[in-house]
Amino acid sequence: MGQTLTEKILDDHLVEGELETGEEIGIEIDQVLTQDTTGTMVWLQFEAMGLDEIQTEIAAQYCDHQTYQFDFKNTDDHRFLRSAAGKYGAHFSRPGNGICHNVHRENFAAPGKTLLGSDSHTPTPGGLGELAIGAGGIDVTVAMGGAPYYIEMPEVVNVRLEGELPEWATAKDVILEMLRRLSVKGGVGKILEYTGPGVETLTAPERMTITNMGTELGATTSIFPTDHQTEDYLERVGRGDEYVELQPDDDADYDDEIVVDLSDLEPLIAQPSMPDKVVPVSEVEGESVEQVIVGSCTNGGYEDILPVAKMLEGRETSMETETIVAPGSKQASEMLAREGWVAEMMAAGVNFSEATCGACIGIGHVPSSDSVSLRTFNRNFEGRSGIEDDNVYLCSPEVAAAASLKGEIVDPRNLADELGDLEAPGVELPDEYDGSKTDLISPDEAVDDELIKGPNIGDVPLKDQLDSDIQGEALLKMEDNITTDHIIPATQDILMYRSNVPKLSEFTLSRVDETFAQRALDADGGFLVAGENYGQGSSREHAALCPMYLGIEGVLAQSFARIHRANLFNFGIVPLTIDEDTYENIDQGDDVEIVDDVYDAVTSGQEEFTVRINGEDEYTATLDASERERAILAAGGKLAWTKEQAEGGS
Ligand code: SF4
Q1: What atom of ligand 1 comes closest to residue 538's alpha carbon?
Q2: CATH class of 268-419
Q3: HSE of 272 in the Cβ direction (CA atoms, 13 Å)?
Q4: What is the pLDDT of residues 25-51, one digit of tens each?
Q5: For ligand 1, is residue 296 a contact (CB within 6 Å)?
Q6: Which of 207, 351, 448, 639 is deepest in the core (most CB within 10 A)?
């Protein structure tokens, strides 16, 4: 039996286990990336583990989430990150240089390599044939120290692309179509491998829009084979020598197959406030739009903004609509500026912004209350824009530009008919990605060789070994699809505390219940209860770290999102799966007791636990965990476990 492309790359990097679906495998990691909101903890943990040098081929520290540097706390973080990159041997991308995924794809992403990143959209370079996985910061720390990354072997799904995109349909519509069909849970436990004759019709940047947003499907990662399009892109970014041809075997055996005929696609849009609420743009036409933003790691490349510039050239944006363009990298900004496109867009009414995550996490350009904002981003979770009563739609740059011109949501095909002279801009790559690279500091050019810790840089909190008795109040009961944004928001008033866990913890789940953090501290332990897909969204390990700091000992949920589940193990919180009946029978404020000796049960491999509610009714909860995950939980988290391993402990 032949191999899928995923299996080939995993086979090349396999250090432990077998490539059987559901089996835990350990893989060697070639590249790691981290960004500023997850990076501080990565380096503090690297230091706390006593590691002294990066062991991966490439490690890159980006500063993209909090680049506006509102006060000294952000700049403290950035200075610390630069010093850590210098001391330990990572590339350092300065604040304003761009979003991690954009800068990484321009400079380092390479076919056949493995990449682990402490950001959920790390799968972006899957479009170049790199096997790229998002993980919690501590997993990245450990991989950077040279240890394998462990993961349950996902199912590999063949997404077969047929045909060719018609005019005005884009790569964004391919992934929106996938979300429409599969939902935000549809990719959980899966790697989506794209194949078929439609693949070669897509340029590498288009493929990376699709792999970027595979994260919204909950997929472990998404990957494309490599071909002339991959080679062409690598040549244009000046790294043609890194091209290798990678294809699945003809008789590769996939766990499932999905067929998407590109020729059938039309402009699509995700409605507020979930990326899978996808409908054709024509269904929501006429809705007036107050704000349009083009950018983010999904659609912030040169080739994403150029179509917008072409559509706006010589025209004027609507007086009712504020239009912002925020490129994904400074290189893209510089190239567009050199070619005169920045001036064209500004003349049309565009407000040109810094290359940063910014508005994607509610930092700047917060929409007015209860207004419509159209964005080319990947997520529109309620409140992520910085205001709770937001109405954020997700769409392609072409649909965004059309709305900017019309002042309302409009299918660009209809706008073209109306205007008469609006042509579909198509996809055009620059001859050469030739923006300045002065904002990327290589390890050889490092400016610091010691860690610089200002007053905003705290310590890494540690947890004791797992208790045998776990009992406490169900401190909060939540519904389905709770995101890590709900658990620890990423808005500007909070983001600056990512390196200060005691302070950040005060905001834990404040979007669900403002009193939660104080109640948790007062209760000195307890449980969280949630529905399906708990912890979807960002890779943010603070969403486990802060509850741990507040004393949360267990989470009872109907299901967990992959990265958050791993983070709960990594910070010593017991993630127990419950069925719907159990969920319905636990109320907030109930007394929850795990009847078993938890330490013994976890370490002995026990899967079913008895949960007693209010001293009476008993239910079954399941711990589905590998031996390694159980050892991590028992030790009190991954930091303690890694130290134990280094010291030759159990
Ligand atoms: Fe930044 Fe948004 Fe991309 Fe996350 S999803 S890396 S916040 S642009």
Answers
A1: 4
A2: alpha beta
A3: 15
A4: 999 999 999 999 999 999 999 999 999
A5: yes
A6: 207
